[in-house]
Amino acid sequence: MTFRREETVWIPESDLEGMSVDTLAVRAGQIRTGQLEHSDAIFPTSSFVYGSAAQAAARFGGEEPGNIYSRFTNPTVQAFEGRIAAMEGGERAVATASGMSAILSTCMALLQSGDHVICSRGVFGTTNVLFQKYMARFGVETTFVSLTDMDEWQASVRPETRMLFIETPSNPLCEVADMAALGRLAHDNDALFVVDNCFCTPVLQRPLEQGADIVIHSATKYLDGQGRCVGGVVVGSEKMMEEIYGFLRSAGPTMSPFNAWVFQKGLETLPIRMRAHCDNALELALWLEQQPAVERVFYAGLQSHPQHELAKKQQTGFGGVLSFQLKGAREEAWSFIDGTRMISITANLGDVKTTITHPATTTHGRLSPEDKARAGITENLIRISVGIEAVEDLKTDLERGFQALRNASTDNV
Ligand SMILES: Cc1ncc(COP(=O)(O)O)c(C=O)c1O
């Protein structure tokens, strides 16, 4: 292929057909300008120009494809969308300003007043607030159910149920949903099955192949992986993505070209990062299970996890997030967290740097005490998003947390 200076070329997707997610992460969705750059170009421009008034009219009228305005057409954003769509095995992706705006845009585009949603109880706290407080104001009612109790899902279906929404594995307790069963339930009832695939990413799990209609990501997490940008993305069929794209064009929760470029580069290392996260998390989970101050560890890679077999079937790895309950209450959890020195105290997850948080007072702090109890968010619970540092060094830092607990109990004598 030859390039003219002014030409921008999309590398043909057909060249990558049947290739693995590792290859798609590096190659899919790439565009190359006439400068023949090897790394992805970035197009930080709000608008685009036309060769003539007639061309402008044709672009606005939809008769000619091409860029118009970066609220809804930007090549860098489209490059990121092409790559993540290929990795998830979806027809098309729509990138958004944040993970929450990906969820909001999906709801606004595909639901209407009078519709009913069933959502798993253990979803990210803000997702819960979005459904419970804001979608309810527009006449969309949500029933919250246990992620793993199929009878409760079945019993909650109504004639007006239009969407089943889950995260699997869940945050922070790492519960695993049976996606095939939930997909069947949704489709038997003319509802959409939406999966927030934030914890696994397409490297470990591809929900569209297991019954989901739509996959959502907070790109802020593993897709970037280095804690730099906030963003989101929705993946699914051309028809549904066109609806979501239409909402984005009108309402504007768009991803910026710079953020899209960061995420595009982040995807290139996602497969190797995810494997490193999984290895470290499994080793830490096994180690934490042996600590006398620990009451229980939640990680789907452990034999003790109730959905261990299901996770093995659905996922190619168990992910980088684990949580555990200490013997004690909030005081013990906070002492442990404050005792660590290297691990970052932050609610973000999916970063190469290990992070630690107390869900009951941070990510899930806005839930009512009843909702926290129902979601299993206890005061002695700690969540760790395991990074890619040397696992022995992570143990050394967590050991400082255990030492802080021992010091506190001696002080109290
Ligand atoms: C599973 C999950 N989904 C969605 C979100 C929201 O994403 P964002 O913070 O990018 O809006 C988060 C944020 O932590 C999350 O953990």
TrEMBL record:
SUPFAM superfamilies in the record: PLP-dependent transferases (SSF53383)
GO molecular function, one term: transferase activity, transferring alkyl or aryl (other than methyl) groups
InterPro entries to which the protein is assigned, alphabetical: Cys/Met-Metab_PyrdxlP-dep_enz (IPR000277), Cys_met_metab_PP (IPR054542), O-succ-hSer_sulfhydrylase (IPR006234), PyrdxlP-dep_Trfase (IPR015424), PyrdxlP-dep_Trfase_major (IPR015421), PyrdxlP-dep_Trfase_small (IPR015422)
Highest taxon in the source lineage: Bacteria
Obligatory cofactor(s): pyridoxal 5'-phosphate
Keyword Coiled coil found: no
Pathway(s) served: Amino-acid biosynthesis; L-methionine biosynthesis via de novo pathway; L-homocysteine from O-succinyl-L-homoserine: step 1/1
Keyword S-adenosyl-L-methionine: no
Reaction equation(s) it catalyzes: O-succinyl-L-homoserine + hydrogen sulfide = L-homocysteine + succinate
Annotated NCBIfam families: O_suc_HS_sulf (TIGR01325), PRK08133.1 (NF006003)
Protein's name according to its UniProt entry: O-succinylhomoserine sulfhydrylase
Organism: Marinobacter maroccanus
